[in-house]
Amino acid sequence: MHLLNQEMNNGLKEQTHHVADIKMFPTFVRSLPDGSENGDFLALDLGGTNFRVLLVKLNKGDVDIQSKTYLIPQRIMLGTGQQLFDHIADCIGKFVRDHDLVGQRLPLGFTFSFPCRQEGLAKARLSKWTKGFRCEGVVGENICHLLHEALLRRTNCDVEIVAIVNDAVGTLMSAAHTDRQCEIGLILGTGCNACYMEKLDNVGLWDGDYDHPEQVIINTEWGAFGDNGCLDFLRTEYDRELDTFSINPGKQVLEKMISGMYMGEIVRLVLERLAMEGLIFRGADRDCYLFERGKFYTKYVSEIESDHDEFFRNTKQVLDEIGVENYTTEDCKIVKYVCTLISARAAFLSAAGLSTLINKKNKSDMTIAVDGSLYRFHPRFHNLMSLKMQELVKPGLKFRLQLSHDGSGKGAALVAAVAMR
Ligand code: ADP
Ligand code: MG
């Protein structure tokens, strides 16, 4: 927590920002929603695993959302920027036709969940790709401009890109719509990231105006914590091996110890090692998925940890699915134990991060909005985090972890709406 706080301060200060791993990007989102936001908005949510187009209707605190999820094929995730944005524009075109919105001029909020340096609410340059993406020719470019050009090329849609936000920011905005105490947003999905409302006086980097309110949401991008080696003392051989075979070696060290894209793989690496040493699955076939990278999904961890008796129904189902044969009840016990250790580590690291932010803000009562499938579906994540935070947060500060419903869809629309308010 001490190290994280130090690294976050380095990110905020002008003198140290350029060498800091944790970038602490100011977002240009200065006001939280107050419930008076109105109108129809398009929203996009590009999160890492899912891509969705949404129609969000805001009406005095009521929210109606229609959405459709589209697939982003791996060849596009690893292709060129033009292919990616053409694909996104095609999906928007389809959505607009299917929802009878052709000809309407709709404001659009874009949840783009990759580290960006914002130059304005609707101007954000990609600082690097993370998670599974690596599209050529996008780093350093203005994402809104790339989308705008693609929309002109591929559709006749009349959309105005009003805001580009990170999913953590969307999650915070979405929860703040109904909860005035909410000032921190956390993502536990494909990746891991957090944002919080900070006083302008503490943001050395800020070069905008100092009008009321004198605050801005900071997108921490804390997934990069440890990229300079400062977390090496607690990384394991499994963390190192996972990193070596990832598409961004040496990058996103904290994220790789926590988030949904990686947690299953860490479990797999431990089980593989135990099997190699003859400690579990004696007689397992070397051809089964246990020995193949990326074939042990994080959702398996949730399923396995949902077993509460000696029958291990879910664990057995997972082992069958990955093709392990002749396992024993003892094997099931060990598999579950490994899962509990690795998910607890992830939850405790997330708790330490949030506690650092809470202690830094030092407000007596706060809500933390959380979104992402790992938090949503893992059976113990919420409780593990809450318990650990009670140990780590300064005595006297109250907090609650609140699941944010459709943070990135509703949140992007709200940022657009607040900007137009
Ligand atoms: P995104 O990050 O694109 O917004 P999600 O929040 O749905 O998408 O997160 C996707 C990640 O969540 C994937 O990495 C996946 O492994 C993980 N995940 C999906 N289902 C579960 C589950 N039941 N338990 C834990 N993790 C899950
Ligand atoms: Mg998401």
UniProtKB/TrEMBL annotation:
Q: Which residues form the Hexokinase C-terminal domain?
A: 183-418
Q: Name one GO cellular component term.
A: cytosol
Q: Which reaction does it catalyse?
A: D-mannose + ATP = D-mannose 6-phosphate + ADP + H(+); D-fructose + ATP = D-fructose 6-phosphate + ADP + H(+); a D-hexose + ATP = a D-hexose 6-phosphate + ADP + H(+); D-glucose + ATP = D-glucose 6-phosphate + ADP + H(+)
GO biological process, any: glycolytic process
EC numbers, comma separated: 2.7.1.-
- What EC class does the entry list? transferase
Q: Which PROSITE patterns match?
A: HEXOKINASE_2
Keyword Signal on this protein? no
Q: Which UniProt keywords apply?
A: ATP-binding, Glycolysis, Kinase, Nucleotide-binding, Transferase
Matching entries from InterPro entries are given as: ATPase_NBD (IPR043129), Hexokinase (IPR001312), Hexokinase_C (IPR022673), Hexokinase_N (IPR022672)
- Pathway connected to this protein: Carbohydrate metabolism; hexose metabolism; Carbohydrate degradation; glycolysis; D-glyceraldehyde 3-phosphate and glycerone phosphate from D-glucose: step 1/4
What domain of life does the native source organism fall in? Eukaryota
Record function comment:
Catalyzes the phosphorylation of various hexoses to hexose 6-phosphate.
> What is the name of this protein?
Phosphotransferase
